[in-house]
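Researcher: Here's the sequence for the chain we discussed earlier.
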Amino acid sequence: MQKNNIPYHVAIIMDGNGRWAENKNMPRSIGHEQGLKTLSKITQKVFEVGVKNLSVYAFSSENWKRPKNEITHLMALFEKALESNFQYMVDNKIKFNLLGNIKKFPSSLQKKIRNLEEITQKNKDFNFYLAANYGSKEELAFAADTLRNSSRKITESIFKNAFYAPNLPDVDLLIRTGGETRLSNFLLWQSAYAEIYFTKTLWPDFKTTHLNKALEFFSRKIRRFGKIY
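Model: Thanks. This is the structure I predict for it:
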């Protein structure tokens, strides 16, 4: 695969953790735990191949509708993920960014998020964006509300600067696991020209071989962005 065919920004909708566990007659929580292990492996591989930005959809703003015990377990799992990957991000000069509103999270989780963001803020080699309590429609509404009293003409660049993470680049390759073929309110603006790769593989079963297939899919694309070549 040619280096110039490596996507600059990969986004992943990690779908299928609960179904993976249910298919094995196990609690859904086991599926989420296995999904975390998959994320650690895939994150390392994504950055190893030269991708500079990785965004993952961990918890949507709609996921609060899930059973309370599942949400409690997910919050604890988020904390565990931050703790277990802390040193990896520091050592590999990865900047951690949180996409979403963390005010509804437990205070201990909020503290860990802010701490990791602060410690890695000067890292420039790679960016990891964790979308948690995130919804793209809410982000767009947030930007519009932020700029509602602006006297300037609102251009695309000015509007984007009001997003949760203004420096988040547009998505080149968006991967969704689990067999569903929708964006589920994830990075709608940023994915306007994304190449979208859907796979039936449930997230806990997603391996580096599956990632390679998605990258190969991207490398075959001719990206015109409205132009003619």
